[in-house]
């Protein structure tokens, strides 16, 4: 072995990694060698970047949108419950709630049954904001997904739900 090849990989055997940066030119067989996590990360980053562009026009970020959506479905909910439903940490929820509260979109009050907890609910202005954001969300989604058939969308959502449930089961 020459000293040049030893320096190249520091004496370790080379790992045969797919060139994941070239996924656009890969056929289905080659894609089998790309980890699912890479696809999830890429889709999430691209979707959030696309969605964020529209949300920024309304002066709201994706985390705030998801919080408003949760509050629309469940009023007087604890901050811990919001964090649990959205699978984010409590500090993120607290920070976003503070921003939403400053804009009079939500209200936080102390839980009468447990004074250590704060309950969160939407103000009417929060409902109005959510309506505007949901319009943007549907518009964004329709632009992205109009390349899929209804059947493909059903399959995609079914598989994503199955992955989410599987991950939650594994983590138990």
From TrEMBL:
GO terms for molecular function: DNA binding; DNA-binding transcription factor activity. It holds the Pfam family MarR. Residues 33-165 form the HTH marR-type domain. Keywords: DNA-binding, Transcription, Transcription regulation. InterPro entries: HTH_MarR-typ, WH-like_DNA-bd_sf, WH_DNA-bd_sf. Gene3D superfamilies: Winged helix-like DNA-binding domain superfamily/Winged helix DNA-binding domain (1.10.10.10). PROSITE patterns: HTH_MARR_2. It comes from the Archaea. PANTHER family: TRANSCRIPTIONAL REGULATOR, MARR, TRANSCRIPTIONAL REPRESSOR OF EMRAB OPERON. This is DNA-binding transcriptional regulator, MarR family.
């Amino acid at each position: 072995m020459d000293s040049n090849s030893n320096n190249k990989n520091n004496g370790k055997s080379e790992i045969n990694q797919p060139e994941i940066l070239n996924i656009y030119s890969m056929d289905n067989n080659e894609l089998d060698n790309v980890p699912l996590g890479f696809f999830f990360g890429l889709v999430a980053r691209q979707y959030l970047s696309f969605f964020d562009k529209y949300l920024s026009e309304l002066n709201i970020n994706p985390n705030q949108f998801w919080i408003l959506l949760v509050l629309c479905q469940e009023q007087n909910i604890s901050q811990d419950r919001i964090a649990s439903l959205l699978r984010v940490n409590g500090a993120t929820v607290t920070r976003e709630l503070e921003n939403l509260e400053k804009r009079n979109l939500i209200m936080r009050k102390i839980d009468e049954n447990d004074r250590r907890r704060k309950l969160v609910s939407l103000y009417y202005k929060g409902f109005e904001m959510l309506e505007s954001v949901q319009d943007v969300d549907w518009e964004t989604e329709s632009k992205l997904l109009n390349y899929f058939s209804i059947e493909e969308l059903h399959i995609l959502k079914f598989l994503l739900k199955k992955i989410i449930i599987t991950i939650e089961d594994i983590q138990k």
